[in-house]
Amino acid sequence: MSTPDDVVVAEDLRRTHGRGATKVAAVDGISLRLPRASFTVVLGASGAGKTTLLHLLAGLEAPDAGTVTVGGVDLASLNEASRTVFRRRYIGLVFQHSELVPYLTARSNLLLPYLLDKRDPDPAWMDRLTRALGIHERLEQLPGQLSGGEEQRVALGRALATKPEVLIADEPHGNLDVRQGEQVLRLLRSTTDRFGQTVLLATHDPRAIGFADRVLVLRDGVVAHDISSPDVDHVTGLLAS
Q: Is residue 58 helix, strand or coil?
């Protein structure tokens, strides 16, 4: 049963891709709840359904069956335009590629959700956020002048700028080297610890286990294992089995 502290609630989500002989149940009856100020990691092999699950929870794809609520709002109750606005305001998204606008400075990329909404940001929050992410001194640079790690920090800042109900991250450190990748994982963890942010991270990287409050292991579109306070060796063993 969901509680007021459950930021995201999914019930019996189902999504198939393809037709006929190529039909695949990418998500096959998944139900889950993400409590406020929690860090959940979704692990699984390529094709397990991680990205499809994240797209459903973010309203980027519509389920064939089941429901998703974010902050108490049923995503199916919104039309496409309203869902886009809702996502911009209440769902932070970070992907493997930073998706920064190349001709905008880091500052303008950070403020893009506000610019699109014709709203003014909270200067104190933006100052706190950029300092916490270590990009305060790089805000006037274009994306091409930033390192890969800095680009992802800006992308993370943009996702957090509106204080979203949930931050959904799909392999945000997948294109980074080991050191930069670990920095991104630490930053994601710190958003939960410092800002009370609810984070859902999908990854192939077992290092993420050590940062998580909870790990979901997906196989063939279902949650094969749901582990609280995960132990790295135990979860790694489950992944290998």
A: helix
Closest C-alpha among 65, 6, 80, 79 to residue 30 = 65
- Number of structural domains (the chain) is 1
Confidence check: pLDDT of 226 > 50: yes
* Token representation of residue 168: 């959904």
Q: What angle do CA 75, 94, 44 make, to 5 degrees?
A: 85
Which H or E run includes 133? helix 123-133
Domain that holds residue 94: 6-100+159-240
Q: Which DSSP helix (H) or strand (E) runs through 152?
A: helix 148-160
Rounded to two decimals, the pTM is: 0.93
CATH number at residue 18: 3.40.50.300
Note the residue count of the chain: 241
Burial class (CB in 10 A: 0-12, 13-18, 19+), 106: buried
Give the C-alpha separation, 42 to 32, whole Å: 12
Q: Tell me, what's the pLDDT at 1?
A: 45
Kind and range of the H or E element at 14? strand 6-17
Which of 68, 142, 133, 132 shows the shortest CA–CA distance to 104? 142
- What tokens were used for 164? 């979203």
In a domain, residue 152? The reply is no
Distances (CA, A) of 72 to 5, 77, 161: 10, 11, 21
